[in-house]
Structures are given as C-alpha cells and as structure tokens.
Design a protein that fits this description.
Length: 186
Amino acid sequence: MEKGMILYQSKYGAARKYAGWLREETGFEIREVKNCKIEEVLCFERLILCSGIYASGIAGISFFQKNIEKLQGKQLFVFTVGASPYHENALKELKRKNMKGGLCAIPLFYGRGMWLEEKMTWKDRTLCRMLKKAVAKKAPDTWEPWMAALMSTNGQNCDWTDRKYLKPLLDALGNRAGLEKQLDSF
C-alpha cells in the first residue's frame, strides 16, 4: 500500500480512537493535525483527516482548506466522528457546509463516536442542555436522528465507536482484508 498519513483532531477521544484503529489497519503514520505543518505531509501519497464534528463543523478541515493547492495530486479522505447515528442526508449536508471548492471531491466517511458529559467543557455541557430543552419542546415523532440521539443520552456516558464504521473508508483505500479479519473475530 502507498505511503500515507492520518491526521486527527479529537476533543473527547473518539476521533483519536478511530485514528488509532486506522493506523493499525493501514500502517500509516499518525499525527495530531494541530501539531502538523504542511511540509511534513507533502511526502505522503494519501492523507486521511479523522476528526470530530462540533456544531455542524468538521474539526481540522481548515488544514485541507488552506493547503488544498499544495495537496494537488494527493489522495485525500475525511473520516468524521459524531454522536448521532449515521444518516445519509446529514452526511450530505455536513459535506455541503464544510467541503466547498477544492474540497468537494474529497470522499467523506462517518463513524459514530462517544458522549462523555463528564469530559465536556462547561460551555459544551451548557450548550447541549440548552439544545436538549429546545428539542424536548418538539413532538418525538418529528425528531431528526441527531435529536433522538441527543435525547437518549440522559446524562450518561455512551461509547458507540466501532471498527465497522471504518469499512467504507478501508474499502476506498483498498485495505479491506485486515478489517474483515478483525470484524470476524468480534
């Protein structure tokens, strides 16, 4: 397999966990995006950004945005991590909002992450509580998937991470055999 690097940005640990699993599957190097300079990635043929979704934004996507000209000819991939279950329309909307211009051709993948209120900042907890109050005013049969996921947390910690979410990305990378072996052992 070609040389590659996994760049990750993780606020609460789920994206870092997926990045570690990707490293195991691909053998790619791994770096936290905030500690990486463009010169350090130019020698790699493939780059994967593995990051969380916060307030409808893809963390770390700015690295690709500001360096897209220098990354021409590289295979770029984005693997996002969020608390909501997978929903195709939500993923399309995420891509529309975050991956404009030179980023629109980059494949986007999704894995379900974690909900760890105990690790959240005061600001994040407060925003989530306010959002829950707003959602609670709606009829449950009108909730979007992310709303149902939010309302199901009830102050508990949830870890929905699963290697199976990496399958579509690994298929795109051509590294499916290793994942199949791992999934069969579960």
